[in-house]
């Protein structure tokens, strides 16, 4: 089951919002929702979650719908390949569903622990031992290998150790110290509990919503995390929709999978691949997509702006310019890239001034 498109007539910050999850009429396996705070990324995930879990489009007018891929959802004669999931449709056809559609949606909220993760890991190990008749030591080796293979790009500094008689999960670090799952660092716990379980769990043909997966993750891990989610989507035919503030994540995703939410004329709209985010520098994404006002602390940004303005006005030989340049060199270093460019421009202008005499 996958979402093809959504139309929201009136729900919280949204009014007449249309968002398409396809590219060349194929549903994207992964979609990144990016934008500034208040652009509705989390609200969109909440709308999807409420619709599926409550099986009702709440607080929205009757025009709202979620267009769903049919994918053998029904016991009776199939509907069209895609159909509009609306409050009215749910009410009339709920008895025809082959399964409870709410069981095909999973929502990982920002900064919220995945309480299902420990049990998923325990069930995986128990299956190896009790159903596949593998010795505990061999099951632990397989678990260790599975984590290493799955998460190799992240270069984790921990590895699985054991499952004790009380079903407590242990890892060990490079010093061979044993650490309970709950005592791992926030970043390690985020990876082990939110990413790895999706590889070993029975979640298939489902929609997975993830809000701010960058929480507690080092930028290097943020660069790699999307490739792991893409593998999860492909492996089990899942659709993953991610809301993020991370320029590292946005930069790591092909343009066709990025949806930028922006506010125009007091309404939120969606910009598709025109964002051209894939492979761009982090600072460019921060400025262009996340609309940050500057890449430095405001005090330094203000001084640099003033210095550049004085330079444009050919006031580089004034006391004001010299004092401001000296302050910045003391603060951010004489060899800062912006200051280096300013000094080059000074030399260029001086040569031009001498040539014009």
Describe this structure in words.
By secondary structure, this protein is an alpha/beta fold. 40% of the residues lie in helices and 21% in strands. It contains eleven helices and 15 strands. It has helices spanning 41-53, 87-93, 117-131, 136-150, 186-200, 219-235, 247-251, 282-288, 298-312, 319-332, 337-355; strands at residues 3-11, 14-20, 22-23, 26-27, 30-34, 65-69, 82-85, 105-108, 158-163, 169-173, 178-180, 207-211, 239-243, 258-264, 267-271. A hairpin with a 2-residue loop joins strand 3 and strand 4 (26-27). The longest helix is centred in the C-terminal third of the chain and has 19 residues, at 337-355. The chain is flat and about 90 Å long. The model has no long low-confidence stretch (mean pLDDT 85).
What's the rounded overall pLDDT mean? 85
- Output the number of helix runs: 11
- Which term fits the overall shape? flat
Tell me the Rg in angstroms: 26 Å
Tell me the layout of helices and strands:
Blueprint: E1 3-11, E2 14-20, E3 22-23, E4 26-27, E5 30-34, H1 41-53, E6 65-69, E7 82-85, H2 87-93, E8 105-108, H3 117-131, H4 136-150, E9 158-163, E10 169-173, E11 178-180, H5 186-200, E12 207-211, H6 219-235, E13 239-243, H7 247-251, E14 258-264, E15 267-271, H8 282-288, H9 298-312, H10 319-332, H11 337-355
Parallel strand pairs: 5-13, 5-14, 8-12, 12-13
Antiparallel strand pairs: 1-2, 1-6, 3-4, 6-7, 9-10, 10-11, 14-15
Helix pairs in contact: 3-4, 3-5, 9-10
């Amino acid at each position: 089951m996958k979402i093809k498109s959504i139309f929201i007539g009136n729900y919280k910050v949204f009014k007449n919002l249309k968002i398409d999850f396809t590219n060349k009429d194929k549903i994207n396996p992964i979609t990144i929702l990016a934008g500034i705070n208040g652009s509705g990324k989390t609200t969109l995930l909440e709308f999807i979650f409420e619709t599926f879990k409550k099986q009702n489009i709440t607080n929205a007018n009757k025009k709202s719908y979620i267009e769903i891929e049919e994918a053998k959802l029904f016991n009776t004669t199939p509907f069209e390949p895609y159909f509009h999931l609306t409050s009215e449709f749910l009410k009339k056809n709920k008895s025809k569903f082959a399964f409870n559609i709410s069981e095909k949606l999973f929502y990982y909220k920002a900064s919220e622990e995945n309480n299902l993760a420990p049990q998923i890991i325990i069930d995986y190990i128990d299956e190896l031992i009790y159903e596949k008749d593998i010795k505990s030591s061999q099951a632990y080796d397989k678990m260790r290998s599975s984590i290493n293979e799955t998460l190799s790009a992240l270069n984790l500094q921990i590895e699985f150790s054991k499952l004790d008689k009380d079903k407590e999960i242990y890892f060990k670090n490079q010093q061979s110290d044993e650490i309970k799952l709950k005592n791992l660092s926030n970043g390690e716990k985020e990876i082990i509990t939110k990413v790895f379980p999706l590889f070993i769990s029975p979640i298939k043909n489902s929609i997975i919503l993830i809000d701010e997966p960058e929480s507690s993750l080092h930028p290097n891990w943020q660069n790699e995390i999307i490739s792991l989610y893409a593998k999860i989507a492909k492996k089990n035919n899942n659709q993953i929709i991610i809301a993020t503030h991370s320029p590292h994540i946005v930069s790591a995703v092909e343009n066709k999978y990025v949806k930028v939410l922006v506010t125009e004329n007091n309404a939120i709209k969606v910009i598709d691949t025109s964002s051209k985010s894939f492979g761009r520098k982090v600072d460019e994404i921060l400025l262009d997509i996340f609309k940050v006002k500057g890449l430095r602390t405001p005090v330094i940004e203000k001084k640099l702006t003033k210095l550049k303005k004085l330079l444009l006005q050919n006031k580089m030989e004034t006391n004001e310019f010299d004092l401001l340049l000296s302050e910045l060199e003391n603060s951010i270093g004489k060899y800062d890239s912006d200051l280096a460019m300013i000094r080059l421009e000074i030399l260029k202008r001086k040569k031009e001034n001498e040539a014009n005499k």
